[in-house]
Amino acid sequence: RSAEPPVRAVVEIAARQLGDADAQALGVLAGTAGLIVSRMSYTAPTRPAVWFRGVFRDHYQLGVELASVAF
Prior knowledge:
Strand content: over 45%
GO molecular function: DNA binding
Radius of gyration: 15 Å
Pfam families: UTRA
Structural class: mainly beta
Distance between the termini: 19 Å
Strand order of the largest sheet: 1-2-3
Low-confidence stretches: none
Protein name: UbiC transcription regulator-associated domain-containing protein
């Protein structure tokens, strides 16, 4: 955990056909529809702090909560 709070984050969400490794990890066939979510959080404008990648099957629900943050 960083002593510095995050100042920004970049999130990418993409619908894709799952490749071999992701499909195997989820127990589905390669080529199955999936959702890839990646996020990079920064503690300074250009200082990366946390990287996240989630791979989801063909059934998913995406919820987003945004909060006001003083920069």
